Amino acid sequence: MKIPVTGFIIDSGEDDSLHSHKLFITSWDGSSRQTHIHSISGMTTVNDGHDHQYVNWTAPAPTGVPHTHNYRTVTFVSQGHTHTIQGTTGPAIALPNGGHYHVFEGVTTVDGRNPHSHGYSGRTGVDVSSM
Questions:
Q1: Would you say 51 and 120 are in contact if contact means Cβ atoms under 8 Å apart?
Q2: Which domain of life is it from (predicted)?
């Protein structure tokens, strides 16, 4: 028996031969499955005498089930360089009036004339339908 499935694949962003891709199913056997995204933005910690701003969207995730989101962005230029920020959010945290958000934290890549990294943390914006 064949079951019709539709969806899309998100590139992992990794360059090695052992990388993988995330498959997001948008319909299963003709039944639609909605996905959503969140905004992600903030400032890194101060290190080497400066900080960096960042802003982007998370990768899509299914709506209505326990989930996390992957995220990846590059900081704005400060002191002539940027850093990459990437990771996976924590699980969904429900809001009293509906919707949800996620917390995230991590450390940037090491970059700059004087090699260094920055910490970052925050919470995503409220969920936004992507499909």
A1: no
A2: Bacteria
Distance separating alpha carbons of residues 14 and 11, to the nearest angstrom: 8
How long, in residues, is the chain?
131
Contact 57, 36 (CB under 8 A): no
Q: Give the full edge-to-edge strand order of the sheet including 5-10.
A: 5-10, 22-28, 31-32
Report the sign of the C-alpha dihedral through residues 55, 77, 88, 59, in that order. positive
State residue 61 phi and psi, 5-degree precision: -145, 160
pLDDT digits over 2-39, tens only? 666 666 666 656 666 666 666 666 665 555 567 889 99
